[in-house]
Write a structure and sequence with these properties.
Blueprint lengths: L17 H13 L7 E2 L8 E15 L9 E12 L13 H10 L10 E2 L2 E3 L10 E7 L10 H8 L4 E6 L6 E3 L5 E3 L6 H6 L6 H32 L7 E11 L1 H12 L5 E5 L16 E6 L5 H6 L4 H20 L4 E6 L9 H9 L6 H4 L4 H21 L4 H4 L14 E2 L1
Parallel strand pairs: 1-4, 2-5, 6-7, 6-10, 10-11, 11-12, 12-13
Antiparallel strand pairs: 2-3, 3-7, 8-9, 13-14
Helix pairs in contact: 1-9, 3-11, 5-6, 9-11
Length: 421
């Protein structure tokens, strides 16, 4: 699939769709409904992990994507955090029953086997008392993608002593389920630029403008979530007094990565950020963030057959890629500092850890060009290790061992030759 970071290819680009992600996952499970449990990687940090979901209503903002005038912008977030589970507590289910039913109905499956997928977070476990408060990371997923499918990565990062808040963006995400049973599905307004990219001859500048407009809503969402965390820190029965609002970072995948970069530009509360194989909004491209920024990219490359399908020549593709790297290098050179890491043998969907793991179990259903050839569990650990190293450095003041020098243990990460500016 075409990488969101190659959005400049406009209507000819193959994009990373939630629909395909989910379809692949569900069909994989359907083909082996009696298969053994699929356990996600065990978090490697020193903390157990807790998990809660929260509804957040922005009373100061009307929802620009809603077709009903006057609707307030509402969000659902999933919070992973360092926990001290009580004896006998069970792991939280991978997904809720309502979401499971929606996926079943959408793809006409006789049985949705998501119950076979198991994470390692405890539902509503007490926050670990080892520290008074923990640094916070706000996460936005790829466009249209449920944050659910990043569980492997988010649990692992939380186990290293971070409160990780994953945001669902209504009307852009395939669907968002609220506690009262309402389901907000993706609509035309919330996905406008994606449709435009598939329209032959559609003006690129108009598409980019519409893309930025949707991005503005996502950026406002993430900033509002941070506002709400400040409120919850004074009164929430679990999170209260445990959220360190002086140590806040942001990261995201694909469209969410562009959102993270722009959040750094607009809101000084975010002290560091990571873009996982994404792109940039036009307002960010030539900006100096004056904050540490890490760009983690896939080893993406179109095959001749894929270029032919998109009616591209090798010269067209090479030119577009060259322009992309020129923009990327120019952007990173302005940051204080900027880092760039290439994950070898990866593809755009490698960064969606759960899907990559499912694909390893069912290789005939998802081709290697969709998730790369890097071993999925290894990809999750390498990605997380660099993220933790980066955020430990800029939110906790620790030495950035992986960013400062190559390591023979991380040859997958461009030989650890991270470009710092």
């Amino acid at each position: 699939m075409q990488n969101e970071r190659f959005a400049f290819l406009s209507g000819r680009a193959r994009i990373f769709h939630y629909v395909l992600l989910t379809l692949c996952a569900l069909y994989a499970l359907r083909f082996d409904a009696r298969a053994d449990t699929i356990n996600l990687p065990v978090p490697r940090g020193s903390y157990s992990v807790g998990k809660i979901t929260l509804q957040m209503i922005d009373h100061a903002r009307k929802d620009p994507f809603s077709d009903r005038s006057g609707d307030l912008r509402e969000l659902m977030v999933t919070v992973f955090y360092p926990a001290e589970p009580s004896v006998g507590m069970n792991f939280a289910p991978y997904t809720d029953a309502r979401s499971s039913a929606l996926l079943t109905a959408k793809y006409h499956l006789t049985e949705f086997a998501a119950s076979q997928l198991h994470g390692h977070a405890f539902a509503e476990a007490p926050v670990a008392a080892r520290q008074r408060a923990y640094p916070v990371l706000i996460f936005s997923p790829g466009f249209g993608t449920l944050p659910l499918f990043y569980t492997s990565n988010l649990e692992d990062i939380a186990s290293h002593g971070y409160i990780v808040v994953a945001v669902s963006h209504p009307y852009s995400t395939e669907f968002v389920v609220f506690p009262d049973g309402r389901v907000i599905r993706a609509n035309r307004v919330g996905t406008l630029f994606e449709r435009e990219k598939e329209t032959p001859g559609f003006p690129e500048q108009r598409m980019l403008a519409d893309r930025d407009a949707i991005g503005n809503v996502w950026i406002a969402d993430d900033r509002f979530v941070l506002d709400e965390l400040a409120r919850l820190n004074t009164q929430h029965p679990l999170l209260g007094k445990h959220v360190d609002l002086k140590r806040v970072g942001t990261f995201g995948h694909s469209f969410g990565g562009a959102t993270a970069a722009e959040c750094l530009l607009r809101d000084k509360r975010f002290l560091a950020g990571v873009n996982l194989d994404g792109s940039l909004f036009t307002t960010t491209e030539k900006a100096s963030l004056k904050t540490p920024f890490l760009w983690f990219e896939s080893d993406y490359n179109l095959t001749e057959a894929e270029m032919a399908k998109q009616k591209m020549t090798r010269r067209d593709y090479d030119s577009a890629v060259s322009e992309h790297y020129k923009t990327l290098d120019s952007f990173l050179a302005l940051q204080k500092p900027g880092y760039r890491v290439l994950l070898k043998a990866s593809q755009h969907m490698t960064f969606v850890g759960d899907l990559a793991i499912i694909s390893a179990r069912f290789p005939l259903l998802i081709g290697p060009n969709e998730v790369g050839t890097i071993q999925p569990a290894r990809a999750v650990s390498v990605i997380d290790d660099f993220l933790i190293d980066f955020f430990d450095c800029y939110l906790r003041g620790k030495h950035a061992a992986l960013l400062d020098q190559p390591s023979a243990f991380y040859l997958e990460a461009d030989g650890c030759k991270v470009r710092s500016h």
